[in-house]
């Protein structure tokens, strides 16, 4: 049993706080809004996210981040990727806690992954982990069986956190490939936007399967250029997360892309969406990171062009199909 602070009461933060509490840990969930904290504490529901999910008694909510962080042994970072650094600089983190990132993105200004952002502010890399996998919050909230990867720089640290979040419905595996798990989690959001566009354009299984498969190839190329283990991308943090995000209507990124494919512009799609769509915020950063390492990522590049208004979804698909024939790799 470990004292846990979950920083962020969005859908995934709430679901992961539930997991940690169901695993027997005392959990404090930090929420920005007093109404959210009050709802969790009084009626055991988050009124804004997963409002139909009953939350366990071992979970309490507060609006003061320092109250949540005090004496926490495990600090779960469940805030949007582009907001992580500012929050970390504003908080006083416990000196010996482990920091577990749930965010899936690449920082716009620095092109760092989320674990790298944490270490960039001065936290020892040995204390920083990432959790990734096919983990749609809505299904987790229903306590449907799911699995994930807990990635750390040492097996002992990964084992400790995996033991702390294991329940009858949530099975964690461990890895020491932190960068691979993070690149898989970040890039799949951009690929899901492309798949959603295809869905919105009325494309069938052949088309969508092709996008997913070639998207995995792009993800693997970038990950390997950054030193990741190629086997990671065949697992839960690679293919697993990619398939779930691309194919489920619960996926914000796939749904956002579908709105674009149906003819909405980015502003309209944003207005119709709920919560943060990480792929929209990180796609250009992923493309820039790929260019820095001379990695070819055409699907991500076309997604960036659509988001910037330089192409329509239909034109982007046509341009990809017209690319020169080459060996599959």
UniProtKB/TrEMBL annotation:
List residues of the Glycerol-3-phosphate dehydrogenase NAD-dependent N-terminal domain: 4-155
Tell me the active site.
Answer: 188
Positions annotated to bind NADPH: 12, 32-33, 49, 104, 137, 252, 276, 278
Chief site of localization: cytoplasm
Question: Under what name is this protein listed?
Answer: Glycerol-3-phosphate dehydrogenase [NAD(P)+]
Pathway connected to this protein: Membrane lipid metabolism; glycerophospholipid metabolism
Q: What is its EC number?
A: 1.1.1.94
> What PANTHER family does the annotation carry?
GLYCEROL-3-PHOSPHATE DEHYDROGENASE (PTHR11728), GLYCEROL-3-PHOSPHATE DEHYDROGENASE [NAD(+)] 2, CHLOROPLASTIC (PTHR11728:SF1)
Its BP terms in the Gene Ontology are: carbohydrate metabolic process; glycerol-3-phosphate biosynthetic process; glycerol-3-phosphate catabolic process; glycerophospholipid metabolic process; phospholipid biosynthetic process
Record localization: Cytoplasm
A Pfam family recorded for this sequence:
NAD_Gly3P_dh_C
The record lists the catalysed reaction(s) as: sn-glycerol 3-phosphate + NADP(+) = dihydroxyacetone phosphate + NADPH + H(+); sn-glycerol 3-phosphate + NAD(+) = dihydroxyacetone phosphate + NADH + H(+)
Glycerol-3-phosphate dehydrogenase NAD-dependent C-terminal domain segment(s): 177-317
The organism is: Enemella evansiae
Q: What are the GO MF terms of this UniProt record?
A: glycerol-3-phosphate dehydrogenase (NAD+) activity; glycerol-3-phosphate dehydrogenase (NADP+) activity; NAD binding
Which positions are annotated as binding NAD(+)? 8-13, 137, 252
